[in-house]
Design goal:
The complex is a heterodimer of chains A (439) and B (207). Chain A is α+β, with helices and mostly antiparallel strands. Helices cover 51% and strands 18% of the residues of chain A. Chain A has a 6-stranded mixed β-barrel with strand order 3-4-9-6-8-7. Chain B has a single domain, classed as P-loop containing nucleotide triphosphate hydrolases (Rossmann fold, 3-Layer(aba) Sandwich). The chains are: A alpha+beta (439), B alpha/beta (207).
Chain lengths: 439, 207
Amino acid sequence: MKTQDVIDLAARNLHESLLRNSLTTLGIAVGVASLVAMLSLGIGLQTMANRRLMRSGLFDTLLVGSRREFRGFGGGMHPEPTETRALDEKARVQIAQLPHVLEVYPEVRFATELRYTGKPGVAMIAGLPPSAGQNEAFEGMQGRFFSGPRAEEAILFADYAKELDPQASRLVGQEIVINYAEREPLSNSAEEGGFSLVRRERPLRVVGVIDREPYSGLRGMAGAGVFIPLQLAESLNVVQPGDLRGLTSAPEANGRTFNILTVRLDSPNYVEQVETAVKQMGFGAYSLMDATRNLRLFFAVLDLFLGIFGSLALAVASLGIMNTLIMAILERRREIGIMKAIGASDGDVKRLFFAEAAAMGTVGGAVGVVLGWVLGRAINFGTNGYLRRQGLPPENLWLVPWWLIAGAIAFAVLVTLISGLYPAARAAKLDPVQALRYE
Amino acid sequence: MVRAVDGVDLQAARGEFLALLGSSGSGKSTLLNLIAGLDRPTSGAVVVQGRDLARMTSAELARYRQQTAGIVFQAFNLIGSMTVQENVELPLRFAEVEREARRQRAREALERVGLGTRLAHRPAELSGGEQQRAALARALVNRPAVLLADEPTGNLDSHNGQEILKLLSEFNRTLAMTVLMVTHECALAERFAQRIVFMADGKLCPA
């Protein structure tokens, strides 16, 4: 029998028991919907967690120090250093040229005297790279991020700002003044890298106040109360704790060395690669990659569990298909006998029942995907309403990628075909003489 | 073990109209099913056009039923959910005949049995005689060499029964089909068949 005729006859048979077949199809649709809703929730949660973690800046980042600095940091990461290279401007440029490296910047952090409305106090100041504006700490901040990489502006950490003014938000737009010690190279002994210290003063405009610490935990920003643009911080040439050591232990660096450089990559996938490259250059490196590996494992397990729960409904639906098809065989026993008597082969009968199962699977799968999508939208809408009431920003908890749509329909068809195997084989093997005798 | 058909040795010539008479349980329907390729003998041979049905695979038997043998039952056995025309087209679907040719041939077959105006009716809307004529159209639509009829008049009144037998006889003459009819109506058999064979307890009886 031609495929077109198989489809024709299958459609006719399905239409004959419309209510029963529709209910069976609906069963499949509910199964697929639960599968889609569960998996898309898993995918959505994973995407959200990844995005959050990316924006936390912890996982696309590598900390680079000279090997001396890193000894005992991260637990025996490397054997005895073969050579000790100074982490200077040359090294910074070299690391920045590695593939997948977005930016390399030093940790600039210093304690200074800070005056606000004439009253003096002490502040820990940290430089922030322009990319930090993407960090979640600046989401929903009071005021704004720096207007430029060298803008003479400051963002205050709320806890510190409260020391200056109990109502921190009033500080936005105000002026603060910092006093610091600038490192000035000695003009007559440049080759020896010596420097003198000069007292400086600089006014800064407060442009914002943040509640959360940016990059807490990894990038030396912890404990800082005032943030200024990194380039500005570097140009201030404030004397750093490492400068003295650099002067005595790495004279070839010609003055300036960095304690630690932060290397930001375009994707966490390359952390390991860049880490190896940096180590080969003779520096120490450290990343939080192991943590993301565990996170990925966690989500793989979560997706698996959600998938299994989602599939349970589909498994129940597949029993429904089997039941419907076996009922159809009992009802159409005589019809199958007639078809065989007038020339239908076993294969024709089998294909006919298969086509009916596949049609229910395809329609059920398609309706299920739509149902699942609507269900997911509803969950999203509900959770976002809750988040809004809690004063939190809305989140996309639920994500349906195209492969999930195609996969769910394919899976539904596969499950229905497997459920159709036994009924179809049973129908094909029906003895026409027995079937025609059946009343 | 019951032997429904036992030691039967029967030959029918091409184009012959043969009637198989016997009481219920005599094995005549089983013999017909064997010749129709619906059943297989436990031993022996059923040879049609030089080929032994007992040695055919089930796919070959399906093709045999599709192309060589047409069958009519006492209970008509039309599919109730299909129109008369669709019922007659069904064997052509299994034989993979194109849609247009299929329609054309089904219409011709139905016109031949006098149902040219009832194409779109469902079997339940037809009388018993009309249903059997539709079944006859379905059996001959593939132009089989052998037409098998199992008590074709059993569910019909005598007038309709005679009409059906007239048609069988006409196909036998005009289309040169070999007709093998199982019946227990002696008078009809004597009137239309060229040869009558009697069966009892699964065996052929001497005439």
